[in-house]
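Most newcomers find our protein records easier to grasp once they have seen one. Sequence and backbone structure share a record, each on its own labelled line. To make this concrete, we reproduce a full record directly below:
***
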Amino acid sequence: MVSIDSIEARAREMLRSKELDKMEVYYLVETLFTELGEAIGSKQSKEAAKRGAWNVELLDDAVDSIVDALGGSYAVLDLWESAWELRVGNGDAAATLEKLINVIDLVRRKRIGKGARPRNSRRR
């Protein structure tokens, strides 16, 4: 399991890069959604565990579960749409990374997922 802290760190590192690989950004978003799906115990994560892998259909359904867990946040849907645009060859990789970081901030505020603690809090 990957922590959202490491996903955020990778996103920030990629933003500093001169060239962004659209598929690498897509896969980072995919990783975030699979981790969040598992963190909330979505039925899609259980199905992926049975199958041994996630697929696009499961991810798409998991996004809906994540939206529900985050109180109906449009930011999650917007990130998924931006990531999909990258996958089909269009889209703005830097803007997608910014959206990813915003969703991670939202996740921290809602406190779901591994590593989902407020940025300035101490571990006890």
